[in-house]
Design goal:
This protein is of the alpha+beta class. Helices cover about 40% and strands about 15% of the residues. Strands 1-2-3 form a three-stranded antiparallel β-sheet, with helices on one face.
Length: about 80
């Protein structure tokens, strides 16, 4: 069976538009969660880094779900 190209997961992410919550921390930086994807928690020192980390975490999580044959949760509606 042919593997799906990396691009398809990123495309799926863009289409779904998963909501992420960036929570500023007292000690600096931002904690990030994705409500539609339980278990995703990441961190960035700056807003820009937090967004990039969120993107990577969501893509990685989606790849894992696809690999395991799990259903992909819907993003924002």
């Amino acid at each position: 069976m042919a593997r799906r190209p990396r691009r398809s997961v990123r495309h799926s992410l863009a289409e779904q538009g998963y909501k992420v919550i960036l929570d500023p921390l007292k000690e600096g930086g931002f904690q990030v969660i994705a409500p539609a994807l339980p278990g995703i928690v990441t961190y960035g020192r700056s807003l820009r880094e937090a967004r990039a980390m969120a993107r990577d975490a969501v893509v990685c999580h989606l790849r894992g779900l696809l690999k395991d044959g799990e259903e992909i949760p819907r993003g924002r509606q």
